[in-house]
Amino acid sequence: MQGNFFAVKRRNSMMYGVLLLVLTLVAIIITEYNVVKGFTSIPKAIDWAISNFYPNEKAMKRLPDILDKLVETVLISIAATTVAAVFALIAAILGSNTTGVNGIFGYFSRGIATLFRNIDVAAWSMILLLSFGQSVLTGYFALFFGSFGFLTRAFMESIDEVSSSSVEALKATGAGYLSIICQSVIPASMPQFLSWILFMVETNIRHATLIGILTGTGIGFLFSLYYKSLNYSAASLIVIVIVLTILVIEYVSNYVRRVIL
Predict the structure, then answer these.
(1) Selection from 59, 80, 166, 89 nearest residue 124 by Cα
(2) Most buried of 53, 68, 245, 246, CB within 10 angstroms?
């Protein structure tokens, strides 16, 4: 019986592998992509980057402006994430199977979360550009909507996972709804909530660079400006600053996760 189970899994894996290979070949044929040329051009690209894409003394003079835009980008990312987390917590409590008030609120909250989560932040940026134009507000709302959808779903799962037994115990004692939320759900799920929020902050800082290119704000716009003006040394300095910032934030968030979890 067990042998048949593994044989079926192997057969299914091979079928999916063959299907993926066929889709890849079809995509190559349709797009007329030259695989050999693509791989052989990698050494040339590396050689060009070594020769041109590095910060020099002139680029270092622009470091204060770059850091100023970097701070703006990081603060927008943090603000969008934390505000979205507040609204996501409310939506998650209403939509959770454990704490939901009724089915209508639950379906509505889950539907909104699914809609917002499945629209990429870049798509949100392009949609919001029509309303707000190229401004910081556009980038903020794009990050906010993306964070709201993701965090609502994550918070719902955390509440259903962690709080179900304690909620049932408090209901049996006759505790009120707000008492259950404040004394059981939020305290029990807080470590997971903080972990998801930290993860979203990291993600949003990465997204904010791309959004800045689209909305004409932040460090992303500065990178686009330098790159399009062929100032590769300043553009490379921005890339280095962004990478270092993400590494530092990831280290800090991992440390916080180890402490709270």
Answers:
(1) 80
(2) 245
- Gap between the Cα atoms of 179 and 187, Å rounded: 11
Q: State whether residue 135 is helix, strand or coil.
A: coil
* Structure token pair of residue 147: 């964070």
Which domains, ranges and CATH numbers included, belong to the chain? 2-52 (no CATH), 57-260 (1.10.3720.10)
pTM score: 0.78
Q: How far is CA 208 from the centre of its chain?
A: 10
Residue 31 confidence class, pLDDT cut points 50, 70, 90? confident
Contact (CB, 8 A) for 241 and 66:
yes
Q: What does each C-alpha distance from 2 to 6, 8, 9, 13, 144 come to in angstroms?
A: 6, 10, 11, 17, 48
Residue 212 pLDDT exceeds 70:
yes
Model confidence pLDDT, tens digit, residues 140-176: 888 999 899 899 988 888 887 765 666 666 667 666 7
**Dihedral pair phi/psi, residue 53, rounded to 5°:** -95, 75
Q: Provide the CB-side half-sphere exposure for 15 (13 A, CA).
A: 6
